[in-house]
Amino acid sequence: MTLFVPVPNYNADQLKGSTLILPMVSIGNIPQLTADLFIHTFPLDRVGFLDTDTVIPVSSLREDTQLGATVPIEVYQSRDRQWTCIQQRSPTIKGKRKSYVDELVQFASQFDRVVLLTSMDASSRLDSQINSVPFRVLGQDVTRSIELGVPQLEQTEERLHLPGSGLTRHVYEKLQDKATLFIMFALEGDNVQDRSQTVDTT
What we know:
Elements: E1 4-6, E2 19-23, H1 30-41, E3 45-50, E4 60-61, E5 69-70, E6 73-77, E7 83-88, H2 97-108, E8 113-121, H3 127-130, E9 135-139, H4 143-147, H5 168-175, E10 179-186, H6 192-201
Parallel strand pairs: 2-7, 2-8, 8-10
Antiparallel strand pairs: 1-3, 3-6, 4-5, 6-7, 9-10
Helix pairs in contact: 1-6, 2-5
Keywords: Chaperone
Family: Belongs to the PSMG2 family.
InterPro entries: Proteasome_assmbl_chaperone_2, Proteasome_assmbl_chp_2_euk, PSMG2_sf
């Protein structure tokens, strides 16, 4: 089965060479809110979807002027082909989490660079994190983020610990050589402002 299903007249080879923005389902849904802002601000065009049985099947009318319906995991791309973004609208099925991670990694592996967006439980912050900006980065290429005042994630354990971030660690560890992990500390509730802060900082 082909995982990525392109819209008519879109060549899937155009995914290669772009940077993938991959929002992970995590506390407060900050990554999904951020992806929505990316998609509608730049704007990004819908170029396909991931055909997977690892998430709860949902469908609804499209928000834009295009015909058809939305599906659980859709793929968007900027018109200059430099940025690609996934939007996930339903949670992973509990017994299929490993397959979900494997499929995401399979899709993401074709990109030159992957930016993983995730959120962490703000109630689990260290003292140094409470007295600092609500963002952290981790990865091979974080120089630009550090220049913008976003510190690297403090690690107090040998194993990466990301409370409230869902399956982020599993995806990040499989993509580590090409992935940058961008984290925001958050709580459940009204996170619209958090979404805007994440876009501005990213």
